[in-house]
Amino acid sequence: MQRLTKIKLSLIPAVIMAGIMALIGSVSAATGSRITSFSLQDPNTVIDQAGRRLVIQKAFRRVISLYGAHTENLFSLGLLAEIIGVSQHDDYPPQARGKPVFSYHDDPEKFLAARPDLVLIRPMIDRGYPHFVAMLEKSGITIVSLQPGTIEEMFTYWTILGLLTGKRDQAQGMIARFKHSIDEFKKLSRLGVNRKRVYFEAIHNKMKTFTADSMAIFALESAGGINIAADAKPVRNTNIAYYGKERILSRASEIDVFLAQHGAMNRPTVSIIKQEPGFHIIKAVAMDQIYIIDEKIVARPTMRLLEGIYRIGTYLYPAIFDERASKILIKH
Questions:
Q1: Average pLDDT of the chain to the nearest whole number
Q2: DSSP summary character for residue 206
Q3: Contact at 8 Å (CB) between 267 and 205?
Q4: From CA 303, how far away is CA 325, in angstroms rounded?
Q5: Which side of the chain, N or C, has fewer Cβ within a 10 Å radius?
Q6: Which of 149, 174, 284 minimizes the C-alpha distance to 225?
Q7: Does the structural domain 192-331 have CATH classification 3.90.1310.10?
Q8: CATH of 9-166, one of 3.50.50.60, 3.40.50.720, 3.30.450.40, 3.40.50.1980
């Protein structure tokens, strides 16, 4: 059930308010079913996705991050000494590789020895490893579980990270820079005469795509692409949507570009897509307009979404996404 939230309007800067109001908002316009499950109740109180209510009295100074997006964002907020541990596969930014590695498979004693005052996780860990989480909490370690699914949620998520770590102003700065960069990318993409129609694959062997309000589709549309599967329905209230081969092939003549994410859940290659039975009739496949993109730059709630937008833009409109577009990344 969605939580109602009381907010002291006069105390919250406009850029934060925009994110908060979007989060408090009702249901996702695209799915009609997802209800936001984390929020700011007031400028200093957070409710995470497990329902934990945390009143922030002072900034946390010894943070272990067990999710790559948390790690990236903490570094973006300027937290270097405060990050005392990261998860096993965290490799961005490069400084993350020099941090001690922790895992929810570790003995809780390893965490206790590091003396963190905050461990940042995501809902998957809460659901899959409740005993591990409970042991840390019983030892007095604060746990916060967050993973946004939409761009508006991402802004509030950044705001929460800023509140937790005493980097409120830096979080506002991230939001402002991101929004400004998006505006610049959108202005650039409008220079294209013929907008490209794109099928964006999420999981190849399941013939799944993304919901219309997902970060991946936001990246595609910010680059000027048209989502051919805007009517896809979500799978189990997630940002992944089932489309199916029959529906893909029914739009075969309309698909100008076939875009596929590559990551832990999907490892396609151009060859695999070309050899998929029936796919030879897809316009994009016949015209060699198949592109693979790293999921970390299109599906994670970090500033690197800007890199994902730029990369998609170079696939769709190489004549437009040239030095002008690269300067947007350098600038922000």
A1: 88
A2: G
A3: no
A4: 15
A5: N
A6: 284
A7: no
A8: 3.40.50.1980
| pLDDT range class, residue 330, cuts 50, 70, 90 | low
Cα 259 to chain centroid, rounded: 18
Per DSSP, the three-state class of 262 is strand
Is there a contact between 309 and 215 (Cβ–Cβ < 8 Å)?
Answer: no
The two three-digit tokens of residue 183, written as one number: 């505006």
Q: Do domains 9-166 and 192-331 have the same CATH topology?
A: yes
Please provide the size of the chain in residues: 332
Distance, in Å, from the CA atom of 103 to the CA atom of 111, rounded to the nearest integer, reads 9
Mean pLDDT of 87-94: 94
DSSP 8-state assignment for residue 251: T
CB contact at 8 A, 41 and 49: no
Considering 3-17, 27-41, 51-65, the range whose residues carry the highest mean pLDDT is 51-65
Alpha carbon 41 to its chain's center: 22
